[in-house]
Amino acid sequence: MNKKWFRIGMAGVLLLSLALRFWGLGRFNTFVFDEVYYAKFGNNYLTHTPFFDGHPPLGKYMIGLGIWISSHIPFWQDEVNGFTGSVMSPISYRWMNAFSGSFIPIIVAAIAYQISYRRSFALLTGLFTACDGIFLVESRYALINQYIIIFGLLGQWFLLLALAKQRQQRNFWLILSGIAFGASAATKWNGLCFLLGVYLIWILAWGIRWLQSFSLIGQENQPQLQQKFLSHLSLNKDGKKGSKKSFSLSSLTLFTSGLSGKRTYKIFPYKVGFSTTSKSGQVNLTPLQKLTQLNILHIIIYLSIIPFIAYSLIWIPHLLLDTRYGFIEVHREILLFHERLGGNSPKVHPYCAAWYKWPLMTRPMAYFYQTAQSTHEALPVMGPPLPSGTGKIIYDVHAMGNPFLWWFGLAALLFLLGMLVWQFVIPWVRQRRFFLPTMLCVDTWIALYLVINYAANLLPWVKVNRCVFIYHYMTAVVFAFLAIAWLVDQCLRSYRIELRALGVTITFMIVIAFVFWMPIYLGLPLSPFEYRPMRMWFNSWI
Fold it and tell me: For a pLDDT cut of 90, what percent of the chain falls above it?
């Protein structure tokens, strides 16, 4: 894919995200789900009203900033309410989230490009992220979960950019990365899981480098081996040498070539390959292949001290407003608040869902549910819906992912995990010794990056005893989006027509599913049949 079409595609993804988030943004002139807290808290900063919340303040700052900006805009004020403590339009406390949330697909696509240098992979990642339901729902209302993802992903993207730079430029991006990680934690504490993923992949990179020192192939032979390998793989589809784009020998290519009986080129017992080569024939390593260029001093200064400083400074406006607690005391109160929330059981809250229910999306969550006799009837601002059987029109805003995107994403992660086991563990068991090549290929590093970050954002919830909900999975599922985009990209780049057809089929299924479930993401009117059984496939979804 050339640069021109890539830019057009990404612009289309951004316009789609903006349109879906702003269309009908003021549809419900009331509070939706936790807007009852966060919209009020955001306005409290403007009215100088002290308050306590069980989370750090950055998400509420963003909502308050949106309210302040909207107060200087003469439109958006057709329908107003006073639920926040001030008279304003619901768009006033929602538009900032809608605007910032529109850039999540772009940030995820930027990460995909930095870890692969493949535009097709990046574009697919952006498209799939834009086609998810829970990210759309969260960014259409005055909620704060999306800011964990925005700042956490920015931290990782800035880190990847730093690895691609040298000297002063690297330090600049590392500083931005540390600030972004601090901002993610300053939204909710689980934002630290993005930083945990960085620590784990960095430790693994150094562990791999240490193990590679025991390789039977000396480092002094590496340049000659790279050139020999690239001379075999720098072939275009016609089999001619001299193509400017080198062919990446991925694990999927090895697997499918083995099935078809085609010859593959091997130098090491394991997969080896490179993403791109320059015009001079030099290998251009991706940022993940440069992780060991970061030493322990970089980690301490840029990814430990700077995030802590950024996190602490973000607290200052809140502590000046609410002087009841100091910096240490407010953290103690937040911890006690979460401990008082009770066990993870439907008896505590009907939508409580343990961490192992999230990947299969067995318990999504209704943020808003109202019924009416017709589409012309005004919805009640507050109060219960009509009695069962009397409502002919259903308005439901469901915090539910795109089912096919989530399920395919989980399958792709399992595939990547299986690829890593096949590449490292199986040969270890068979040969009774562990061996690594002098360089792991790009796709191996992508697999390690996605699996580790997914686990870092999911597994800490195993030990959490309080009531948790499906939206806590958002920080992990974004890496499942990257995984399915990687797999589809590999299929579309394959020479086998069956795999290309599979990639096209998966893409269409994800997009069609998004369109099909869009009414419950946007709160559009549905008949009882259109709601259930057409879209609510399982009783646990309701």
Answer: 72
